[in-house]
Amino acid sequence: MKSNPLDGFKIQRSDLQFIGKDLQRPECILAEKNDTLWAADARGGIMKILPDGTQTLITQEADSRFGQAMDVEERFTRGTLPNGLAFAAAAISSSQISGPTPWNS
After folding, report:
1. Dist. CA 54–CA 98, nearest whole Å
2. Do 69 and 56 touch, CB atoms closer than 8 A?
3. Spatial distance between the Cα atoms of 42 and 78, rounded to a whole number of angstroms
């Protein structure tokens, strides 16, 4: 069996740095071999970050609801996806929904 190439890997805090600016809830980061980064963005798309720092937001249509949220709870639990469906169900009580759902089946 081959040894794990990550065995013994270490990184110093001083090696870490922030990349990108004005990102909105960046998650699911993908790094390419050419140092281009892709990050999911709460405005309903992805942010492409080139090694020189150039950023391009790629969306069908930018969704401004994330930045306009009234408070932190709303920012992370209401309509942060383009269709708003991921968190819309949480705002509806199970008594308002007929048929099986993940939380009442």
Report:
1. 48
2. no
3. 11
Give ∠ CA 39-41-44 in degrees, rounded to 5: 130
User: Cα(36)–Cα(28) distance, rounded to whole angstroms?
Assistant: 14
Distance CA 27, CA 44 (A): 12
pLDDT of the residue at 78: 59
Strands, DSSP E only, in 1-102? 27-31, 37-41, 45-49, 55-59
- Tell me the mean pLDDT in the region 39-44: 86
Q: Is the dihedral of CA 58, 61, 65, 67 positive or negative?
A: positive
Q: From CA 86, how far away is CA 9, in angstroms rounded? A: 37
Q: For the chain, what are the domain ranges?
A: 19-92
**DSSP state letter for 70:** S
Question: Per-residue pLDDT tens for 66-103?
Answer: 666 667 666 666 554 544 444 444 444 444 545 554 44
